[in-house]
Amino acid sequence: STQAGGGGGGLGATPAYGSQSAALGFASNAQAPTVAAIAPATVNAGDLLICHVMTRDDTFVTTCGTPSGFTAFPGNPYGTLTSTTYIPRVFLFWKIADGTEDGATINVTTSLHSTSATARGTFVSYYRFTAADGFNQTTPIEAIAVAEENSTNTAGNNLTCPTVVCGGNNRLAVVAAAVNNNAGSTGDLSPTGETGGNWAQVGAEFESATGGNATLSMHAATMSSGGTISGGAVVYGGAGGWFVNVGFALVPADTAGA
């Protein structure tokens, strides 16, 4: 597996990864924090922006407002753990870009309540995806699936990927991975052991060793002929813990032959 990159090809080409940016915020008191996250430096009209948010709180099940101009993924929030130590939740949002988002500040506001420096945190990462002829304007996301671990991860630092069943040809399967620990290492965290496709990390992981430790990463697999990608695990350098991995597929505008 290698890091993904590049842009869309000819008509009906499978979507590709463009660029990524990330930001981190904490609650300084009981008020809901707003994280002023920055969009990727280059965003073109018709690109698909994905906002990946993870929160961890030691008291409340956190909510997250939809960033301006974005649409929430069906099923938000992802994650079911409720413990006395931390309550993690993952949120995903999408937007068809209009071309004005280059390096723009896109605020994310959550209901984070914790005042514990070791338990709290709102972690945000934005990803830009490209497609030669754009994305489906109403349903650019399909085949959502979740894999999570709600206690000490018995697999150590192997974070299982969900199975993504593509609804047609020219899809890009994606896994948005979140874990409650910093990776402890940099470099390629691409999943290994998958079948039906090849997961590749898109951009650098967003890693924080401050306050509530966390790592966010995203991985994609080109599925030109549709089909199913299953198995595999994100391998990172930190200790085991809870994780929430959300899988889905991106749908281009031209789905002829799907």
Largest sheet report: 6 strands, antiparallel
The topology string of helices and strands comes to EEEEEEEEEEEEEEEEE
**DSSP helix count?**
0
Strand content: 35-45%
What is the number of beta strands? Answer: 17
What is the terminal separation in angstroms? 26 Å
- Look at the helices and sheets and give the structural class: mainly beta
**Could you tell me the mean pLDDT?**
79
Which parts are unreliable, with pLDDT below 50 for 5 consecutive residues or more? 1-12, 27-31
Overall shape = globular
What's the gyration radius in Å?
Answer: 17 Å
User: Helicity range of the residues?
Assistant: under 10%
Report on this model:
This protein is mostly beta strands. Helices cover 0% and strands 43% of the residues. It has no helices and 17 strands. It has strands spanning 16-25, 34-38, 48-57, 71-72, 87-96, 105-109, 121-130, 141-149, 158-160, 164-165, 171-179, 192-195, 200-201, 206-208, 214-223, 228-235, 243-250. Strands 8, 11, 13, 14, 15 and 17 form a six-stranded antiparallel β-sheet that branches. A five-stranded antiparallel β-sheet has the order 1-7-3-5-4, with no helix packed on it. Strands 9, 10, 12 and 16 form a four-stranded antiparallel β-sheet that branches. 50% of the residues are buried. Mean pLDDT is 79; it is low at 1-12 and 27-31.
